[in-house]
Amino acid sequence: MEKLGKYIRPYVPYIIVTMLIKLVGAVMELLIPYFMEIILDDVVPAGELTPIFLYGGLMLVCAAGCLAANVCANRMSAVSSGKITRKLRCDLFEKLERLSSGQMDRLTVSSAESRLTSDTYNINQLLARMQRLGIRAPILLLGGMVMMLGMDRVLSLVLLCMLPIIGIIVYFVTKKSVPLYKEEQGVLDSVVRVLQENITGVRVIKALSKTDYEKKRFNGVNSELTRIDQKAGMITALTNPSTSLILNLGLTLVVLVGAFQVNSGSSQSGIIIAFLQYFVMILNAMLGITRIFVMWSKGEASAHRVADVLAMPEELTVEKADEKQEESEPAHIEFKDVTFSYTGVGANLEHISFKLKKGESLGILGGTGSGKSTVLNLLMRFYDPQEGQVLINGRDVKTIPYDELHSMFGAAFQNDFIMEGTIGDNIRFFREIGEKDVITAARDAQAAEFIEKHEEGLNTGTAVRGNDLSGGQKQRILIARALAAHPEILLLDDSSSALDYRTDALLRKALHKNYSDTTTILIAQRISSIQNCDHILVLSDGKIAGFGTHSELMESCEEYRIIAQSQMGEGKELA
Fold first, then answer.
1. How far apart are CA 445 and CA 42, in angstroms?
2. What's the rounded Cα separation, in Å, for the pair 82 and 392?
3. Strands 543-548 and 535-540
4. What distance in Å separates the CA atoms of residue 217 and residue 205, rounded to the nearest whole number?
5. Which of 3, 14, 47, 139 has the smallest count of CB within 10 Å of its CB?
């Protein structure tokens, strides 16, 4: 929890006031049995009514004050814990947004989601409970013991003998439960991941009749979560019954010892009754403290998980530019002997080098896993290469501030998404883009045809993930989104695969005519989509298998020629 101190620190004065109010309420609660003891042992034997009404009135005032103080303090604790958790959740979300793609790969999306939701909820509950019980329970415990010692020291010794045993139980439960709750949150990540995969791929699961398989897979992680939760619950469940048993045994001893004392005349009945009330207060206080330790176990485990993310260093920092003499006319985009691996074991790209002038186009072709999308990931600096440089206008992308770097691009990725809203909202995507530019982008992306069929036009609604759109319609909206801001560099990652040949041809024609100053990189599986590019890069297992124009590659690159022949029937049959 000390790692989250900076979030609590601004609210310390507010929390102190909350606890002072709780303190006042606890003191008033402690006075009620004391006044009752005075009435029974001193006032009633005297036979006077006025002192009875006086002390009875004081008991009512204390009861009302205790109620008011507890209600007020509980509301204040809810406010402060809610604000602290809100700030923590916002910072955690912002941190997750700033993590590099490599860090997010290691963290996993499911783990990020559970830390942002269930872990912050556990922290919120801990902060609220600590303010509600953190001062009241100890004051009732210690205050009750002081009042009891003042009334009868012999009876107080009975209680004092019970407290070390309870302390050992609480220590054991806390020590055993914290690791289990940490493990439980880790398994919860797996549950979230499986659930996320099932929701995302529900159509595929149904189409392939894998519903029963997915049920078994979910039952597996769900059963593991249940097992750990039950184990942790069984340990923490020991606190309440064991504490109650010990304190109730003490209460029984108090009654027995008190009866002998009253019988012998060494104590009074009013003291015994007040003593029993204080004993019940102490019992409830101990149960409250044990609940705090249970909540602390969960909150501490969650706090460590949240703090681990907040403490992650920024891997992709903006570096200082090299002061060496730059080229007079640098290439717009240049890869200099770039080598990269996602895992550090085996290269996903090896010694990749190429140059593009401003306004030129590059088509990238290759098999699955050949490294096509990785080229775009490095260009946009989602990852940094282990060797080599990626340059834009002669500047290493590592030296370009993120906002400046990413403002250069318009991108449509393989697994991009459509959000719930309207077609216009999806094209703008929260950017200040005028209606005219949105319409132009939709027209150039060949999306205007199906948009105009709807009466609402750009205001036509879209479902979550674009489930009410065809694959081709989704891709055209995504391409329009990439074009809308008139980017300096346009990246299209296999984003026309769902388009028919006619629409694909019209798209390429519009890009060539209206975006001649934009440097374009297209990843495609169709030769027809890239054959007119200024350059074509053929990748095979992360290495360059060929680089040149369509005609040059037909002569020099066997892999390209085989693909072209299979798709277009070009060239002579290979020997």
1. 93
2. 45
3. antiparallel
4. 12
5. 47
The amino acid present at 209, given as its one-letter code, is: S
CA distances (Å), 48 to each of 53, 242, 269, in order? 9, 45, 19
Distance CA 308, CA 443 (A): 47
Question: How far, in Å, CA of 437 to CA of 392, rounded?
Answer: 26
309 Ramachandran zone, left/alpha/beta (phi>0; psi -120 to 50): alpha
114 Cβ partners below 8 Å, 6+ apart? 185, 188, 189, 192
Helix (H) or strand (E) run with residue 419 in it: none
| Both tokens assigned to 465 | 């993930």
Question: From first to last of its 575 residues, what are the pLDDT tens digits of the chain?
Answer: 566 788 888 999 999 999 899 999 989 988 888 888 888 777 777 777 888 888 889 989 999 999 999 999 999 999 999 999 999 999 999 999 888 888 888 888 888 888 898 889 989 988 998 888 888 888 888 888 788 777 777 777 777 777 788 778 777 777 777 778 778 877 888 888 888 788 777 878 888 888 888 888 889 888 988 888 888 888 877 777 887 787 778 778 777 877 777 777 666 777 777 777 887 787 778 777 777 777 787 788 888 889 989 988 888 888 887 765 455 578 899 999 999 998 877 789 999 999 999 999 999 998 888 889 999 999 999 999 999 999 999 899 999 998 899 899 999 987 778 888 899 999 999 888 888 999 999 999 999 888 888 888 888 888 887 788 888 888 899 999 999 999 999 999 888 877 888 888 898 899 888 998 999 999 988 888 888 899 999 998 899 999 999 999 998 898 888 888 888 765 444 33
CA-nearest of 313, 311, 314 to 303 is 311
Within 10 angstroms of residue 241's Cβ, the number of other Cβ atoms is: 9
Would you say how long the chain is, in residues? Answer: 575
Strand runs labelled E in 423-534: 461-462, 489-493, 519-523
- Is the whole model's pTM more than 0.90, yes or no? no
Q: How far is CA 511 from CA 138, 382, 441, in A?
A: 73, 26, 10
Query: H or E segment at 391?
Result: strand 387-392
Q: What are the tokens at 503?
A: 């629409």
**186 Cβ contact list (under 8 Å, min separation 6):** 111
